[in-house]
Amino acid sequence: MSAFRNHCPHLDSVGEITKEDLIQKSLGTCQDCKVQGPNLWACLENRCSYVGCGESQVDHSTIHSQETKHYL
């Protein structure tokens, strides 16, 4: 994955997130409004476990990204 990190700045802050981790998060709920998927977004910031709803709901994921400067 290191070759991709040279091209995409979003990946610079990603920790050890696996495909399985992302699948599990997608099966959960928004941490703010508790709405269930399918339109959930997981924060990719190392050591941040935030999962928020997308723009088809309240869009808590964008609010989290803007307030924390984390990538989704």
TrEMBL record:
Keywords annotated in UniProt: Metal-binding, Ubl conjugation pathway, Zinc, Zinc-finger
Residues covered by the UBP-type domain: 6-72
Gene3D superfamilies per record: Zinc/RING finger domain, C3HC4 (zinc finger)
InterPro entries noted in UniProt: Znf_RING/FYVE/PHD, Znf_UBP
A molecular function (GO) term: zinc ion binding
Protein name: Ubiquitin specific peptidase 33
Organism placement in taxonomy: Eukaryota, Metazoa, Chordata, Craniata, Vertebrata
